[in-house]
Amino acid sequence: MREEGGVSGADRRVLDEAGGLRAMTWVMAIMLFLTVLAAAAGLGTRQSAAALERQLAGRLTVQVVEGSPVTRDALAARTLTVLRALPEVRRATPVDRAELMRLLEPWLGRAGADADLPIPAMIDVDLSPRADASRVVAAVRQVSAASRIDRHQRWMSPVSAFLDTLTWLALALVVLMLSATAAVVMLAARAGLETHRATIEVMHMLGSTDVQVARLFQRRIALDAALGSTGGGLAALAVLAFVGTRVAALGSELLGGLTLAAGDWALLVLLPLGFVALATVAARVTVIAALRRSL
């Protein structure tokens, strides 16, 4: 008995057995696996760049340069008092000289412990959000024109630029993978049409339309895409969880910023659905266009 729309259950089963479409499950699994990893890398580097920007945007280091230890300590104390009085400064902390000696020991050896060694006094400064750093710099220079102010954001800007480059590269890879997936679906749909050309001609003679035939290929590819996307997505999420535990074990502040927010995880979870939708639309457009040209 013929089903509504001119397509029988037998026709449906014949088209579902297209060998080219069977490989779509594995193809979609591999493509989605790589796409999820690329997307996660891009989202992670974006989060790391944003965290680095937040940490360094409001941080300064003041170096009080003076040859005389007594004068240096006096200027450092006055500078610290001025800094703590500024509304733009959230915190100002002098760097312990013993800590400086420990950091310099690999280069200076025991000579670094000499109290007469002209090592600058250093003050770490954390600014308030959206504070004007130029006012802080001007206040420090009023105390001592020889003092140096190093903005952490300036010397870490190449790292931020590198992370931004990685983010854009990951986005380009995601777009490339999506384009490759659409191309594979189009090739599979065309291969299925060639394999079942005789069957489709019979279906047309029995009253089936191009849209109805395209719906059969679309359903088959959507099912294969759903199965492949589920497998590839779960595998990719498992890899990301494993990598996340390894990064956390390193204890690195920079790599520790390579984390995914809740919205990023939601986007990764939605990627399989996007793959299925992409494969379905690509199959439908390809089959209908091919049928209208050749049949």
Task: Give a structural overview.
With 295 residues, this protein is of the alpha+beta class. The chain contains twelve helices and four strands, in the order αααβαβαβαβαααααα. The chain has two domains: 9-53 and 158-294, no CATH class; 66-146, no CATH class. A four-stranded antiparallel β-sheet has the order 2-3-1-4. The model is unreliable at 1-21 (pLDDT under 50). It starts with 8 loop residues before the first helix and ends with a helix. Helix 3 (24-57) runs antiparallel to helix 12 and helix 4 (69-85) runs antiparallel to helix 6 (133-143). Helices cover 73% and strands 8% of the residues.
List keywords for this structure.
2 domains; 12 helices; disordered N terminus
